[in-house]
Amino acid sequence: MEFQLSTSAREPIYRQIVEQVREAVALGRVQPGEQLPSVRELSRTLVVNPNTIARAYTELERDGVLNNHQGKGVFVARPSSDLTRAAKKRRLVEQVDRLLTEAVHLGFTSRDVRECVTDRADRFQWGTD
């Protein structure tokens, strides 16, 4: 997995890593059970502080995206249904509301947003349809 980091972006480096890993999993670029580079290895490759990588991996592990097997490495987690359907729906609604707020401020119409979401949804790996 390759990372594209920007030191001039508003978003902190660890958040960039978190979002890129989450997207790679959602797009199927990395599969459940696949091993990711160690904290030390990735910090050397990206030339960032190991604590930055550790923070990103910790957040991803807390969110159920990664599993850390002590002494073996960091792996992409298998999808879990620990959250109730209602909790998942709340999280989805929060994210959709953020997207729609941004779209309104950028001057898009609801039709523009629907078309964009429909076009982009085909790129992602869905558990069920």
Explained architecture:
The radius of gyration is 17 Å and the shape is globular. The model has no long low-confidence stretch (mean pLDDT 91). Helices cover 54% and strands 8% of the residues. It has a three-stranded antiparallel β-sheet with strand order 1-3-2. α1 packs across α3 and α2 crosses α3. With 129 residues, it is mainly α. A hairpin with a 3-residue loop joins β2 and β3.
How would you describe this structure in keywords?
mainly alpha; 8% strand; single chain; 2 domains; Arc Repressor Mutant, subunit A; globular; 3 strands; 129 residues
Unreliable sequence segments: none
Instruction: Tell me the helix content.
Output: 40-55%
Roughly what fraction of the amino acids lie in strands? 5-15%
CATH topology of the largest domain: Arc Repressor Mutant, subunit A
- Considering the protein shown, what is the CATH homologous superfamily of the largest domain? Winged helix-like DNA-binding domain superfamily/Winged helix DNA-binding domain
Number of domains: 2
Corresponding CATH architecture of the largest domain:
Orthogonal Bundle
Overall 3D geometry?
A: globular
Assign the CATH class of the largest domain: Mainly Alpha
